Amino acid sequence: MNKKLMGKTANLAGANAEFQVAADYAHRGHSLAAQRWRGKAGEIDLIFKDGDQVVFVEVKKARNFSDAARRISSRQQHRICLAAEEYLGTQPKGSLTPMRVDAAFVNCFGEVHILENAIGDF
What InterPro entries does the record point to (predicted)? Predict the structure, then answer.
């Protein structure tokens, strides 16, 4: 498989994983506020509203959940925090907005595992 096709396949797999995770959050009553939100600090895969709380979600797909978790580096965690702070600046309460950062993992069977308040926990 050529490099361009591999990139397109990975992009589609990532988009599908985000779709599966978004469906899981919707099933639990969260409303999607943004998908692939991009600020100066970087991109956040999914952003949900859960009442007054904003939930930032980093989605990773891999053969198994532990491989997916290992794909979120400390550098990426820092970038996610910066992007989340930037997004909160767009909210009426700013940095006083209740929030959390979750990690969502999708395995090769399409199963979803969500780790709430994930930054620093994986």
Answer: Restrct_endonuc-II-like (IPR011335), tRNA_endonuc-like_dom_sf (IPR011856), UPF0102_YraN-like (IPR003509)
Q: What are phi and psi of 11, to 5 degrees?
A: -65, -45
* Dist CA 91 CA 114 (whole Å): 25
Check if the beta carbon of residue 107 is closer than 8 Å to that of residue 65. Answer: yes
| Per-residue CA distances from 23 to 17, 29, 58 (Å) | 10, 10, 15
- Residue 91 lies in domain: 3-115
- Residue 47 falls inside a structural domain: yes
Question: Could you count the other beta carbons within 10 Å of the beta carbon of residue 3?
Answer: 7
Q: Which amino acid is at 10?
A: A
Contact 97, 54 (CB under 8 A): yes
Full-model pTM:
0.89
